[in-house]
Amino acid sequence: MSNMEKNLFNLKFAAKELQRSSKKCDKEEKAEKAKVKKAVQKGNMEVARIHAENAIRQKNQSVNFLRMSARVDAVAARVQTAVTMNKVTKSMAGVVKGMDVTLKSMNLEKISALMEKFERQFETLDVQTAQMEDTMSSTTTLTTPQGQVDALMMEMADEAGLDLNMELPQGQTGSVGTSVASAEQVL
């Protein structure tokens, strides 16, 4: 097993671990949401807010783990290609021997065509990786955590059949439900 192959194994393992951590955070988020609901039902808003903050933190952490997992996966894909290309290069050693004839005849067109094939593969890979990195960096959270906390508390109160009478700050609607609710208040 080469160093490259060891790196590839470690990257794939790390990506899986990060995904596991993300799922763990999702479970924690659900548990915290349930605690928000209980506290709201008991009318204990301070405790509800603490659990809502925990739930939002777990949700954001889950997204971060997932994003990092995707990033590690992207790097693993590049290493995988490097490992594959290395194997291809080794198997091409025989072909390269045959290229001596081409080199001696100075047929640059044939050599150039072969080099272009390799270069094109690397260019495609670079473009794909760049696109993936752009996509990952642009998926940032749109609402502020405080808005998310308020929205979550409202959502849990709705599920519990209670009315919190909490006004969400302008422009911080957490979900479709809360934006509809605030639109009705305006009318």
Q: Any overview of this molecule?
A:
The N and C termini lie far apart (68 Å). Helix 1 (3-41) runs antiparallel to helix 2 (45-104). The protein has helices at 3-41, 45-104, 108-138, 145-159, 176-186. By secondary structure, it is mainly alpha-helical. It contains five helices and no strands. The protein has a domain at 1-105. 83% of the residues lie in helices and 0% in strands. It comes from Sinocyclocheilus grahami (Dianchi golden-line fish). It holds the Pfam family Snf7. Belongs to the SNF7 family. One of its GO terms (biological process) is vacuolar transport. This is Charged multivesicular body protein 1b.
List keywords for this structure.
mainly alpha; disordered C terminus; 0% strand
Radius of gyration: 27 Å
The total count of strands amounts to 0
Oligomerization status of the protein chains: single chain
Fraction of residues in helix = over 70%
| Unreliable stretches covering 5 or more consecutive residues | 139-143, 168-187
Q: What average pLDDT do the residues reach?
A: 74
Largest sheet: number of strands, sense, barrel closure: none
Q: N- to C-terminal separation?
A: 68 Å
The helix tally amounts to 5
Keywords: Coiled coil
GO biological process, one term: vacuolar transport
Coiled coil: 108-135
Family: Belongs to the SNF7 family.
